């Protein structure tokens, strides 16, 4: 097997190839997020009917909910190209100038993690978004000159997991703002059944539901779990993903019946055992389990909050009675 190996023994390239195959390519194939999908279809149809470009779109929500996938579907429905970049990749004014200069009329520019754009670059985007012009300053001091570049009309799609970190002037320049919600178990079950068909894996509805229940509302996780359960089904069973096969495989992956993994449990146990149930500050908590504060806040915490296992207070995170019960730890408070 060629290429870099990840912990599952699959080559990274192979996983990425599968990922692309599983991605829906039209609104019809896209399961869930019904309100967002219905609204976006209206805006696309209206813009096409008027022969205009679509207004700028801001999508926010937890990682893995399909912001990039939805963006490529929107661009496809408009018959346009999607160019993809991320906030941290656009470091200097020259980077944003080059990115915008590369756009053609009607193109879509997708900026992931748009909350991580630096302030100078962000301010340069304002006139590009509003008036499709871009001012370049040449030179410094009193002799500095400003040159105005006309840009083609384009649509910016900004994606973020942290809407609260966006400045008001940037947020206000998006004509469409949508929040992607965690998926229901029944939508995730439909996604797995679709993905299993794409991968040519046999799966029973109860097997799909078992995986869906442990996927923490996230299509990216559901598809990842499906690939790993498929491995167990192939090597240790007869290839068919039944409820029992799904349950046994997920238990081996140490993903519990609510979808908590070892990192989630480490977080909860640290709050309970090291900090007496909290409150404990995010940075202290992250350092105590050797994780990045940002990862903890963006990846693990939203689901723990959603389950009501932790609370955010002004003095830090606390573990709730529900967390103690789930972990089987007596709550002495
Ligand atoms: N794969 C990942 N996300 C999906 C979605 N929302 N619908 C169908 N397949 C998907």
Account of the protein in words:
This protein is 47% helix and 13% strand. It has 14 helices and nine strands. The chain has helices at 12-22, 34-50, 67-77, 93-101, 119-131, 168-171, 185-199, 205-213, 219-236, 243-252, 262-274, 282-288, 293-306, 321-327; strands spanning 57-60, 82-86, 108-112, 133-138, 145-150, 155-160, 176-179, 310-313, 316-319. The protein has a five-stranded parallel beta sheet with strand order 2-3-6-1-7, covered by helices on one side. A two-stranded antiparallel ribbon has the order 4-5. Helix 7 packs across helix 8 and helix 7 crosses helix 9. The structure holds adenine. Adenine binds next to helix 7 and helix 9.
Offer a quick outline of the entry.
This protein has helices spanning 12-22, 34-50, 67-77, 93-101, 119-131, 168-171, 185-199, 205-213, 219-236, 243-252, 262-274, 282-288, 293-306, 321-327, and strands at 57-60, 82-86, 108-112, 133-138, 145-150, 155-160, 176-179, 310-313, 316-319.
